[in-house]
């Protein structure tokens, strides 16, 4: 079989993620920033769900990071507070690529959470304020009634960010890039954080 040139270079993983993410924004039909977020209880029971990436970069906190927002009273919020580490997975089917990221979680600053909360559509702000995310709901009408109450209470005024709604930054200790190849001869490269804060990488068997 003819040798192929490596398509996943040994380079800065944040720069490589930026390049792949930029291509995904152009090619993915829906939510190129969607990622699976896996958390676990202190006992190791896992759970996973889709969330949206809302910030990323090598300069986003010490060690760089990937940011998402959530209700800390939700199941994932409770697991994060009890066991602040997680794994992320991006799957860009249009590009036949995946990126896996693992690391520790830290809550973003109140100012950062406020800025993002108030950048959202007003209806989304109200919906978040009205939701007891992940808790039992007797009827959808109950939730919609809460939405109406909050909308009427604040009128055209600013919706305060609920204290239980915030963001988390994952600081990566490992980032793995996966590229689909014909006949399942895929290409994988895993970057791991070195003791000096830099990155070491190796190709992996698919």
CATH topology of the domain at 13-110 and 165-204: Pnp Oxidase, Chain A
- Name of the CATH homologous superfamily of the domain at 13-110 and 165-204: Electron Transport, Fmn-binding Protein, Chain A
Element order, helices and strands? HEEEEHEEHHHEEE
How many DSSP E strands? 9
Largest β-sheet summary: 9 strands, antiparallel
Structural class by secondary-structure content: alpha+beta
Strand content: 25-35%
Mean pLDDT: 93
Radius of gyration: 19 Å
CATH class of the domain at 13-110 and 165-204: Mainly Beta
Number of helices: 5
Note the gap between the termini. 17 Å
Overall, the morphology is elongated
Instruction: Determine the fraction of residues in helical runs and give it as a percent range.
Output: 25-40%
Which ranges are low-confidence, i.e. pLDDT below 50, for 5 or more consecutive residues? none
- The CATH architecture of the domain at 13-110 and 165-204 is Roll
Label this structure with key terms.
Pnp Oxidase, Chain A; 5 helices; alpha+beta; 206 residues; 9-stranded antiparallel sheet; 34% strand; 9 strands
Could you explain the architecture of this structure?
By secondary structure, the protein is an alpha+beta fold. The protein has a domain at 13-110 and 165-204: Roll (Pnp Oxidase, Chain A), CATH 2.30.110.10. Helix content is 28%, strand content 34%. The protein has 5 helices and 9 strands. Strands 1, 2, 3, 4, 5, 6, 7, 8 and 9 form a 9-stranded antiparallel β-sheet that branches. Strand 8 (187-193) and strand 9 form a beta hairpin. Helix 4 crosses helix 5. The mean pLDDT is 93.
């Amino acid at each position: 079989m003819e040798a192929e040139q490596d398509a996943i270079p040994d380079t800065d993983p944040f720069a490589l993620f930026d390049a792949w993410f930029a291509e995904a924004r152009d090619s993915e039909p829906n939510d190129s920033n969607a990622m699976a977020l896996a958390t676990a209880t202190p006992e190791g029971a896992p759970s996973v769900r889709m969330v949206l990436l809302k910030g990323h970069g090598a300069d986003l906190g010490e060690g760089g990071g990937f940011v998402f927002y959530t209700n800390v009273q939700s199941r994932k919020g409770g697991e994060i507070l009890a066991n602040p580490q997680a794994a992320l997975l991006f799957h860009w089917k249009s590009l036949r690529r995946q990126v896996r990221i693992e690391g520790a979680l830290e809550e973003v600053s109140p100012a950062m959470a406020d800025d993002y909360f108030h950048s959202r559509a007003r209806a989304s702000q109200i919906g978040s304020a009205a939701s007891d995310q992940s808790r039992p709901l007797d009827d959808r009408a109950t939730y919609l009634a809460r939405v109406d109450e909050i909308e009427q209470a604040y009128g055209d005024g600013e919706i305060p960010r609920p204290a239980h709604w915030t963001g988390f930054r994952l600081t990566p200790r490992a980032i793995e890039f996966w590229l689909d190849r014909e006949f399942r001869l895929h290409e994988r490269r895993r970057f791991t954080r070195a003791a000096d804060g830099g990155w070491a990488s190796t190709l992996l068997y698919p």
